[in-house]
Specification:
The chain is 50% helix and 14% strand. It has 147 residues and is an alpha/beta fold.
Length: 147
Amino acid sequence: MNDFLHKLPEFLGNHMALAALFVILLVALIFTHFATLFSKTRELTPAGLTALINHDNPLLIDISPRDNFEKAHIPGARHVAMSQFDPENKNLAKAKDLPVVIICRSGQTAGKAAQRLVKAGFSSVHILGGGMLAWREAQLPVVKGNK
């Protein structure tokens, strides 16, 4: 160990770009970890969402395009187009104290809607990580149609 510490300054001097890249990646990793810890939204796996559905009966909001929603959605999910998504809507405002799960096709768009819910005062906001693609990959049940 002592030999390692004596050779470390020489290594860093000879490989400045590598050392800088390591520091940048380390800082990015730490920042991402702390951002996840202090985020007001939580990302769920399909199994985690199944457990939440079984225990807490959350409000499931699917913001996928209507044709994707009609092809396959999670049983009990309600469709709301992202262009019409309004956390201040009187029907949605009634659910401020309920767990709310935002679902989209791939999990990428759901974060924007979840942040809007948090800003509107919702206390328990979740995102289905990987969206409907992850749900279907896990071979969990889906329903077709508009309800």
